[in-house]
Amino acid sequence: MLPECQLFGTLGCHLCEQAEAVVMPLVEHGLLVELMDIADYPEWVEAYGLRIPVLRRVDTGAELDWPFELEQLVWFLRD
């Protein structure tokens, strides 16, 4: 079973759109992804503003920074 994840980004971020395009096909295989807009919370802007997009596993708190490809993503989800 795939872990639940959060994808931190913001509107108008073309890198975030690219990351979403890599992540979303795995939703068909059971991945749960919540899109998190860092603009909603100042602490998220501070933590992720220079790093977005960032994929975070809810179960372990592990984070995968962009750029990542599908193969890296699969390994990240397996750990």
TrEMBL record:
This is Glutaredoxin family protein. It comes from Stutzerimonas nitrititolerans.
